[in-house]
Design a protein that fits this description.
Elements (H helix, E strand, L loop, with lengths): L1 E2 L4 E2 L5 H23 L14 E6 L5 H7 L4 E5 L13 H15 L3 E5 L26 H7 L1 H14 L4 E6 L5 H21 L8 E6 L2 H5 L1 H4 L5 E4 L1 H8 L18 H16 L3 E4 L7 H10 L3 E4 L4 H10 L2 H12 L4 H15 L2 H4 L3
Parallel strand pairs: 3-4, 3-10, 4-5, 5-6, 6-7, 7-8, 8-9, 9-10
Antiparallel strand pairs: 1-2
Helix pairs in contact: 3-5, 5-6, 11-13, 11-14
Bound molecules: phosphoenolpyruvate and magnesium ion.
Length: 363
């Protein structure tokens, strides 16, 4: 017997074990029915607070799974998968078709396209990028794009052109300071000019946002908020950089702590900056797909949660079982707490109390 939730294989299970697992399967089936019942319902808390749930995708053809999950669009399209495992760069036309396909399929819902984040753990097979001592701190994402403008140009033009066919939003990964934002935006303006001259359509009001995944960006979010239309917090990287914990290193995985008080404060700081500038803020790292974290993120004031499509129904279920007031009380506790373990325990307590069926079927 294979228990995929706990990563266990049981050889020759006893009758008792089979009975216990039979009960778990029944609970799972009941949960799946509950999740199906709310598929088309909004993500709204018991006290009427609306949350936007969107999906993380990696391929233009993922739109069916987004719709099937009940997500209201895409909060993170990781476009680097168009670039890796191939011999040549994708052309502007090929990218345009891919972005257009998903934008058209999900319209009027938003599709948030992240410009590619290559380097770090993902490499372009055909570019001879020298190996680096610290690739995660190296020539990656927006840093690579601003240096390799020809590659970036193809993608920016493709995204701009696709914006004529749906509700496209665009965001830059790994923004560490204002200079990168100015430079990237200047390129966008230049390519808009090209497209106008060529008579190619694009959305003049295309919204551009910044990912907040480097602590320096969170610390200057109040300034950055004046120059972008939205923030998307990439907690996967934000945690690794804020806590100096390599997200791929198992030996230090115990230090990779989403509820570390420093992370809670960085998220709060970003939300406060978004409020001040009247822009929206989402979380698109793995934390957003973790039902135990839903109350904390909503309580801190995050407007949108973007998670892998199979996780979206559970997050919606959780949102619909919470009260904003109790989520805010949890966030308040977390902001004043000195221990990440204690914050996590409080998050678990509220999650289990609010939506026990999400957890008991995995026991
Ligand atoms: C993140 O860092 O949280 C994020 C969403 O980006 P990626 O996981 O692709 O680095
Ligand atoms: Mg990231």
């Amino acid at each position: 017997m294979l228990d995929g939730f706990n990563g266990v294989v049981i050889l020759n299970p006893t009758d008792q074990t089979l009975f216990e697992y039979g009960q778990l399967i029944r609970k799972q089936v009941t949960l799946q029915e509950k999740l199906r019942d709310i598929l088309l319902k909004p993500a709204i808390t018991l006290d009427g607070h609306r949350v936007f749930l969107t999906a993380n995708v990696e391929q233009a053809g993922d739109s069916d799974s987004v719709t099937a999950s009940g997500a209201e669009g895409v909060g993170l399209f990781r476009t680097e998968y168009l670039f890796i495992n191939r011999d040549m760069l994708p052309t502007e036309e090929e990218q345009y078709q891919a972005y257009r396909q998903i934008a058209e399929a999900l319209k009027p819902h938003p599709v948030t396209i992240r410009t590619f984040d290559l380097g770090g753990d993902k490499f372009l097979s055909h570019l001879q990028v020298p190996s680096e001592m610290n690739p995660f701190l190296g020539w990656r994402a927006i840093r690579f794009c601003l240096a390799e403008k020809d590659v970036f140009r193809g993608q920016l033009r493709a995204i701009l052109r696709a914006s004529a066919h749906g509700n496209v939003r665009m965001m830059y990964p790994m923004i560490s300071g204002m200079e990168e934002l100015y430079q990237a935006n200047a390129l966008v303006e230049e390519y808009k000019g090209e497209l106008r001259k060529e008579g190619l359509a694009f959305d003049e009001k295309l919204e551009i946002g910044a990912m907040i995944e480097i602590p320096s960006a969170a610390l200057i979010a109040d300034t950055m908020g004046k120059r972008v239309k939205f923030f998307s917090i990439g907690t996967n990287d934000l945690i690794q950089y804020a806590l100096a914990v390599d997200r791929m290193n198992e030996k230090i995985a115990h230090l990779y702590e989403p509820t570390h008080p420093a992370i809670v404060r960085l998220i709060k700081m970003t939300v406060d900056a978004a409020r001040k500038n009247k822009i929206s803020v989402s979380v698109c790292g793995e934390m957003a797909g973790e039902p135990i974290m839903t109350a904390l993120l909503i309580g801190l004031g995050v407007d949108e949660l973007s998670a892998a499509p199979p996780l979206v129904p559970q997050i919606k279920y959780m949102v619909r079982r919470l009260k904003l007031a109790e989520a805010q009380a949890l966030a308040e506790f977390a902001l004043n707490c000195e221990s990440g373990a204690e914050i996590l325990a409080k998050c678990q307590e509220l999650a289990w109390h609010s939506a026990p069926s999400l957890f008991e079927s995995k026991a």
